[in-house]
Amino acid sequence: MASTLNREQYLELYYFMRLNRELEEQMVRLFRQNKIVGGLYSSFGQEAISVGTAYALGPGDWIAPMIRNIGSLLVRGFKPRDILTQHMARYTSPTLGKDGTSHFGDLKTRHVVSPISMLGDLIPVMTGIAMAGRYLGQKIVTMTWIGDGGTSTGVFHEGLNLAAVQKAPLVLIVENNQWAYSTPVERQAPLRDLADRAKAYGMESVIVDGNDAVAVERTAREAVAYARAGRGPVLIEAKTMRMRGHAQHDAAEYVPKEMLEAWKKRDPLDRYEKFLNENKLWDPKTKKEIDARIAREIQADVEFAENSPFPPPELAAQGVYCEGCHTVEADWKRAKEEVMPPRSGVKPEWPMQLFTGNGTQLSPANKVAIKSKPGKKSARASSGTKSGRAKAGR
Amino acid sequence: MAVTTYLEAIRQALFEEMDRDPAVVLIGEDVGVYGGAFKVSEGLLEKFGWERVIETPISESAIVGAAVGMGYAGLRPVAEMQFIDFIACCFNQITNFAAKSHYRWGAPVPLVLRGPSGGGVRGGPFHSANPEMYFVHTPGLKVVCPATPYDAKGLLKSAIRDNNPVLFFEHKFLYRRIKENLPESEFTVPIGKAVVRREGRDLTIVSYAAMLHASLEAAGELEKEGIEAEVIDLRTLLPLDRETMLASVHKTNKLLVVHEDTRTGGIAGEIAALVTESAFEDLDGPIRRVTSLDTPVPYAPQLEEYFMPNAAKVVAAARELARY
Fold it and tell me: Residue A364: its pLDDT value, please?
């Protein structure tokens, strides 16, 4: 199928996917040398999802990765050293050693929200950012990921429902890797497709082969465009397989060997290399150059991390509160005069158009009340009449 | 100067802060058209519109989560719990997401989470809670419990301007019962500062929220018996103002802590520990507590009155303490 990416972009996709895999392989070695302080969660076999989806975003967009989305962090501009120092609890890490793994972020530049370990909570958080972005006129999209197991949480439901009723520009990637720790997806949800969960929220959903980087990137790009256009959130179910244990300590003997064998043939990197070959997007020399660059970068950053100090112990007592050390500032992309001084003139009543057939047949509230152009929304939502608009001062 | 109820004072703070700063938004259940279950946000939708007065589904976790996200984007959201009991539904968002954010990765969460707490209104086990101590035990949060209209307004304005997640517990018993003349001019009240509401030399009563008023009433009774009680209003439970309490105990040598929260794990225990650690030599008697019972809040008026402290119970405890 036709795609919008150019050759450099295709090669960049390869770079990020291969970097993702090689970095994790390096971290497995460090883990075995006892240099990783805590757990190590592999995304082996899921690189196409982390990289392909994040690659579809623009610089002003926001992400919140989950534990396995190392690739998304790399796409967003974090370096292997950030991920290495995080896992190795060094003072040079983005969190100065206060948190590990992919639990770090950057509000101001890369727009990355640090995840927490509890699943589902990122969905309303990223919905809130999406709503704030709309209010501020930023035209941004927010993206986050969740596993098949995470779709069982209550806050998954609350978050998606809020996003849908608000028509928030959110793209949620459900990485269905078949396993929630040791529990197969069949025991998590009585559904063949987790994308079906979206139906309950009246939101768009799409299923993609999560081991096909080209399809993932294209699907994500379409979903991002849809959300950015103000048409509402999108759920993408990316079907894949967790090829390692839940974490490094887990040998995953509960996973049937036949299953692993079957998925091994669908390895996303093998498939992507084949795609690049078949479409003559590179030659062996180019591959060699990229691989060599990755090896160099990882080597340099491993050295950096290993030579980095651990944090000073007394740091433990610092930073509980923000005491002027950070600023809270909204990036206004619309004229503040549109909202200041406040003069909405909204009538505190629900507009009759909300209720199909005089309320005998209820329609989704967002059809009337929530518009993508907030400035005009209030007047229309207040009454939808000419007098309502006049009162709004328009 | 205008006579203002505790509830109107809160509404004024919301109006003034939203008027002053377009980054301030309100999010919660029924906060718009209806104006909130207690009408705290009445009139806000008319003035500020749907973008800034955001009605949500019944989803406490999503409300707090979305507010955290808005804070990350540079807004200053005020999230409302319809009754504070429902804060249990979003415990994870508060304690794991909001509270740890700045410590973990330097991301401030300028969030105010406010709602009606407390008993005495026959609300029963699910509409009467005082859940403040779950959150006082959570580093990264600030916990505010105003007792007067002036403080409710001034502290809410401070909370909205704060870069940290502030839990703002409004006492619903006080909403329309407590009135005060408020200045026309702009004022704020700093978070983390207690205040001496009544001076005395014989013993110190430390309290907050609705029980401040029971304590003041008790102090009036005690005065008739020749016992001069000093009454301290904590106003903020986290961070706790140690100095005001320690200075008072240094003077009176006796301490009684009064709270409507249940006994075990209540703030009285923490205060007793810190005063014993820091001012053991000042004490002439045991630190005493008057608190609710260690039970859920019961429904029947007879049961609730038995469960909760009141002025008479404070007087009895103070009288006994004064004898030391």
Answer: 52
**pLDDT tens-digit profile of A328-343?**
999 999 999 999 999 8
β strands within chain A, DSSP E: 62-64, 142-147, 170-176, 179-180, 183-184, 204-209, 234-239, 355-356, 361-362
State which H helix or E strand residue B287 sits in.
Answer: none
Q: Which of A127, A329, A340 faces B74 most closely, judged by CB atoms?
A: A329
- The verdict on A51 and A182 lying in the same domain is yes
- Residue B62 structure tokens: 């999503």
Q: Does residue A111 lie within any of the structural domains?
A: yes
Look at chain A and report how many structural domains it folds into: 2
Comparing C-alpha atoms, which of A67, A68, A113, A118 is closest to residue A94? A113
B24, two tokens: 């301030």
Contacts (Cβ under 8 Å, ≥6 apart) of A226: A204, A232, A234
Domain membership of residue A78 as a residue range = 7-317
| Share above pLDDT 90 across residues of chain B, in percent, rounded to a whole number | 99
**What type of residue sits at position A100?**
G
Which residue is catalytic, options B127, B171, B213, B259? B127
Answer yes or no: do A305 and A348 share one domain: no
- For residue A390, what pLDDT is reported? 36
Residues B149-170: what's their mean pLDDT?
98
- Burial label for B70, CB within 10 Å (0-12, 13-18, 19+), is buried
Query: Catalytic site residue B127?
Result: yes
DSSP codes joined into one string, A23-57: HHHHHHHHHHTT-S-S-----TT-HHHHHHHHHTS
What pLDDT does residue A245 have?
94
Q: Name the minimum distance, in Å, from the CA of A48 to any CA of chain B.
A: 27
Residue A351: pLDDT band by 50, 70, 90 thresholds? Answer: confident
Using left for φ > 0, alpha for ψ between -120 and 50, and beta otherwise, residue B100 falls in alpha
Residues A263 and A370 in one domain: no
pLDDT averaged over every residue in chain A? 91
**Domain boundary at A287, A317, A347, which?**
A317
Answer yes or no: do A46 and A138 share one domain: yes
On the CB side of B53, how many CA atoms lie within 13 Å of its CA? 32
Map out the domains of chain B as residue ranges. 2-182, 195-322
Residue A264: is its pLDDT beyond 80? yes
Is it true that B2-182 and B195-322 share their CATH fold? yes
B1 inside 8 A of chain A by CB: no
Mean pLDDT of B38-67: 97
Quick check: B23 contacting A, CB < 8 Å? yes
Residue A388, pLDDT above cutoff 80: no
Q: How big is chain B, counted in residues? A: 324
Q: Tell me if A190 is assigned to some domain.
A: yes
Which residue of A328, A329, A368, A376 is the best one to mutate when testing the B interface, meaning the one whose CB has the most B CBs within 10 A?
Answer: A328
CA atoms within 13 A on the CB side of B106: 16
Mean pLDDT of chain B: 98
pLDDT of residue A374: 47
| Cβ pair A161:B57 closer than 8 A | yes
Residue A122 sits in a domain of what CATH number?
3.40.50.970
Find out if CATH 3.40.50.970 is the number for domain B2-182: yes
CA distance B141 to chain A (A): 8
Average pLDDT over residues B278-291: 98
Give the tens place of pLDDT for each residue, A51-104. 999 999 999 999 999 999 999 999 999 999 999 999 999 999 999 999 999 999
Residues A273 and A386 in one domain: no
Q: Please determine, for residue A383, whether its predicted confidence score (pLDDT) is greater than 70.
A: no
Comparing C-alpha atoms, which of B213, B214, B210, B216 is closest to residue B230? B216
- The matching CATH number, chosen from 3.40.630.30, 3.40.50.300, 2.40.40.20, 3.40.50.920, for B195-322 is 3.40.50.920
